[in-house]
Amino acid sequence: MTARTYLAIESSCDETAAAIVRGREVLAEAVATQAELHERFGGVVPEIASRRHLELVDIVVRDVLECSGLERVENVDAVAVTRGPGLVGALLVGIAAAKARAWAAGVPLVPVDHLLGHVASALLDPDANLEPPFLCVLVSGGHTLLLDVDVDMTLTLLGSTRDDAAGEAFDKGARLLGLDMPGGPALSALAATADRRDAVEFTPAMLHHDTLDTSFSGIKTALSIALRERAAIRANEPTDAQLAAGFEDAIVSTIVGSVKKLLRQRGPTSGHASARDRMAVVGGVAANATLRTRMAGICREFGVQTVHAPLRWCGDNAAMIGVAAQFCPEHAGPDAWQLDAYATTPLFRQGKLVPN
Ligand code: KG4
Ligand code: ZN
User: Fold this and answer.
1) What's the pLDDT score for residue 207?
2) Best label site of 146, 257, 286, 291, fewest CB within 10 Å?
3) How far is the CA of 224 from the centre of ligand 1 (A)?
4) What was the pLDDT predicted at 40?
């Protein structure tokens, strides 16, 4: 059976993205980032983001239809779109654009959860040939989740952050250090200039608690205190790079610490019905080189294969929405036109997310 072909649209935050996806193949994609537009405000301004999505959504959709050679929406099987979680105004722009195109072309609409999209990005690794079930660490600007991914891509929440998300912590740490947005890559680049042996030691959180949850706000406070103390005594040390290296290490150790607890709980992988022997690492922060190395190391220790989302699909994009759509039901008629956005994911209310 040939895989279905989707036009996918993503507009949950500050990236306006479209893609044409068939099976695991991305035929065309376009991502228009608004990062520069929001930079001077120090964070994404929801209303500005919505207005910009409105200006860009037609352009990215036209671009992928042309680049894929499909030209017209009538030539795809369905239109997939991010339904939430995210900024509601921003989501609504993508949803309205998707509904209009699906209706005009007479094809079904497939609403996709943004988090399911991130999880599905691991299926795009051409070497891993990953298929569910597996375990997953989702680390982004809005979420830090430890998930069990079932054979039908149903997500079960195993652990979450109790305060900031990992990416949010990177962004706040970067702001304290006076770095540009998005803070994660900038802080990581600064950390890479330090000799790791001189990194300032910040204590990773939750390591000794009996939970798979994580916490990052304490690490951020520790960085701000260290900066204040350095200023108070007018010292040059520790340097910004040494602080950044310690900050990055503490965030990564917190994530890896909760993965280690999970793998320990699960015991040996073979012969255990609920055991999963693959661990996907997805989301914007999955682009972090230190995290990738440490995750591979800890998984190897437990005989678990690590599958990292390809770098180009770690951040928000529409290709992952097109891949996830293959696990979601299609809607047609009034059922489709009444679909609405949601700001928070059902994963938190129900502990589970069934693709829908
Ligand atoms: O997945 P994503 O694009 O958007 C959300 O759904 O939130 O993630 C964006 C987050 C930002 O906080 C950004 O600073 C972080 O991912 N990020 C990184 C790196 N690249 C992006 N954090 C650490 N190291 C990186 N290399
Ligand atoms: Zn995202």
Assistant:
1) 87
2) 257
3) 21
4) 78
Atom 16 of ligand 1, nearest CA residue: 284
In angstroms, what is the span from residue 44 Cα to ligand 2's centroid? Answer: 13
Q: What band does 269 get if pLDDT is binned at 50, 70 and 90?
A: low
Q: Is pLDDT of 356 > 90?
A: no
Range of the domain at 38: 5-120+316-353
Same structural domain, 169 and 268: yes
> Is residue 165 within 8 Å of 115, Cβ to Cβ?
no
Ligand closest in space to the Cα of 321: 2
Torsion angles phi and psi, residue 137, rounded to 5:
-110, 120
Q: Which of 285, 311, 317, 321 to mutate to test the pocket of ligand 1 (most atoms within 8 A of CB)?
A: 285
Q: Which atom of ligand 1 is least distant from the CA of 12?
A: 6
Q: Is the pLDDT of residue 173 over 70?
A: yes
The verdict on 247 and 162 lying in the same domain is yes
Counting ligand 1 atoms within 8 A of each CB, the residue from 14, 118, 136, 170 with the most, and so the one to mutate, is 170
pLDDT above 60: residue 310:
yes
* Last residue in a domain, options 292, 308, 324: 308
Residue matched to tokens 């652990």:
159
Start-to-end CA distance of the chain, whole Å, equals 22
Sheet containing strand 134-139, edge to edge, reads: 305-308, 278-282, 134-139, 144-149, 155-160, 352-353
Q: 162 and 104 in one domain? A: no
In this model, does residue 273 exceed pLDDT 50?
no
Residue nearest to atom 22 of ligand 1 (CA): 184
Is there a single domain that holds both residue 273 and residue 189? yes
Q: Are residues 294 and 327 in the same domain?
A: no
Asked if 116 and 141 sit in the same domain, the reply is no
For 13-95, list the strands marked E by DSSP.
15-22, 25-33, 78-84
Give residue 321's pLDDT: 98
Looking at the predicted structure, is the pLDDT value of residue 234 above 60? yes
pLDDT digits over 178-211, tens only?
A: 998 889 999 999 999 999 999 999 988 888 898 9
User: Torsion over CA of 44, 47, 48 and 54, rounded to 10 degrees?
Assistant: 120
For 156-170, write each residue's pLDDT tens digit.
999 999 999 999 999
**Helix/strand/coil percent split, the chain, to 5:** 45, 20, 35
